[in-house]
Write a structure and sequence with these properties.
Helix content is 62%, strand content 5%. It is globular. A three-stranded parallel beta sheet has the order 1-4-5. It has a two-stranded antiparallel ribbon with strand order 2-3. The two termini are 34 Å apart. Helix 4 runs antiparallel to helix 9 and helix 11 packs across helix 15. The chain contains 19 helices and five strands. The protein is mainly alpha-helical.
């Protein structure tokens, strides 16, 4: 199990919007008072350093979709207020950090221990990138590079970029994102149709093999750094599939996809892979994940959250009740 010394709470975009509406006093409906109570608890626990509400790259892309600039500014101001600029690495960056130790474990009997640090600050961290990509500049002027990165990853910079981004760039980015969503949904549906008559175990094996194929270059680099020829890896046979079980976010992705595709009456949707990527990063490392009903059901049926000691729910009220009992540690003396 992955150790969690803080209480990170991951919220689906719709729950960020609900809390933002409560923050500005415009939440409508029977649960307005309850949502406001959750918000007050969340703000207090963040202020006391007992909880964090990290933003992901998916949140940032979703905020950019808001067509009304004033609405986008209000949402940006609130999410930065609650998150304090905290962000979570994207799944692809988390996996990149886990490949080497996971490959190393294949050739030893050590118990998997996940020590990847997935929480940081700023938009660049959320996308798994450095603000200063010029390595020569970073080496020659480390102080300036650190200063520029700190400015770019500050909450103030995050609020400005989220709320006041270039409109033309936003529209172009959204159009590109929707095209990518369509391609991913089409690919996912093709795979679902080709494998729908296979057993769950067979579909798990197929999807694990596809994941490892996508990571083949990273696996080869890991083998090279360990001084092992590629033949050593392939001689392991089916044991190579253990990589997917050992790398937490890959395991979550596979289980979410396999269970989603078991629902033959529901074809994959464009936003599914963004949701899956976000949840694959959040479920192993967060204390609570509040998401859509379908993903909550899948996680609970397959015991995905339980594997990591994570509460996965669709009910925002769970956040309030879970955080309400947290108190600062008493000072010695």
């Amino acid at each position: 199990m992955i150790a969690k010394t803080i209480k990170p709470v991951y919220l689906d975009q719709m729950h960020w919007i609900s809390l933002a509406q409560a923050y500005y006093g415009i939440f409508k409906g029977k649960r307005a008072r309850d949502v406001r109570e959750v918000l007050d608890i969340a703000l207090l626990k963040v202020q006391n350093g007992l909880a964090t509400f990290p933003l992901s790259a998916v949140h940032i892309m979703e905020i950019a979709k808001a067509p009304d600039k004033d609405r986008r500014r209000r949402l940006a101001r609130f999410v930065v207020e609650l998150s304090r600029g905290t962000s979570i690495l994207p799944q692809v960056a988390i996996v990149a950090k886990q490949i080497l130790p996971a490959v190393q474990r294949l050739f030893s009997d050590c118990t998997p221990v996940d020590t990847v640090s997935v929480f940081g600050a700023g938009m660049n961290f959320a996308f798994g990138e450095h603000f200063i990509d010029d390595w020569d500049f970073r080496l020659r002027y480390p102080g300036s590079a650190r200063l520029l990165s700190a400015i770019a990853n500050s909450p103030e910079a995050m609020e400005y970029v989220l709320g006041d981004g270039d409109e033309a760039e936003n529209r172009a980015s959204i159009a590109g994102l929707r095209q990518q969503e369509f391609r991913m949904a089409t690919r996912a549906d093709t795979l679902r149709q080709k494998t729908q008559h296979y057993s769950r175990k067979e579909r798990q094996t197929i999807y694990s093999a596809l994941l490892l194929n996508d990571l083949s270059l990273d696996i080869c680099r890991a083998l090279s750094s360990l001084g092992r020829p590629q033949g050593d890896f392939f001689q392991l046979g089916e044991r190579t599939l253990q990589l997917v079980d050992d790398i937490a976010s890959l395991y979550v992705e596979r289980e979410l996809v396999i269970e989603r595709d078991s629902q033959t009456t529901r074809p994959p949707k464009g936003n599914d892979m963004l949701d899956i990527a976000a949840l694959s990063a959040a479920i192993p490392y967060c204390h609570i994940v509040v998401t859509e009903k379908m993903w909550t059901h899948i996680s609970n049926v397959r015991l995905i959250g339980s594997r990591f000691g994570t509460t996965v729910t669709h009910d925002l009220m769970t956040v309030g009740s879970a955080l309400a009992t947290l108190e600062p540690a008493a000072r010695a003396g």
